[in-house]
Amino acid sequence: MRQILTQLSALICITALLMFASGCTLKGTINETTDTTSNVTGTTSGRTWFTEDGLLHPEHKLTAFMALNQTNVEQDLARGQGEYVSSLGTLLGLSNDQQAGFHAKAQGEFETLMTSDHEARLQHLRMLAR
Are 122 and 62 in contact (CB under 8 A)? Predict the structure, then answer.
């Protein structure tokens, strides 16, 4: 799983860099990159993470966000506040009114969240958002 997330992180960074590059072959390059990404994630994880437009499917946004921002999310969770834990709440579908309660619950469960494996951590965060 860690290798897949590392590959996914690298491909997302490459795609982002290509989006900022100029040139008439940009669309072709992006399509080629996302096709490769789809093939890699499709064959290694049994599912496709990206749309044909190269965007991350909504059901994979939480996983990608946690993988790319793990240290910052952990620091914000420990403090019970911050932009990363707010973004996490938004990805979990929380309104602004629900954020403070989620921050407090997540801070209270910090030790449990940090000792779980990645999938268990995501499930626990989803549970806290209810």
Answer: yes
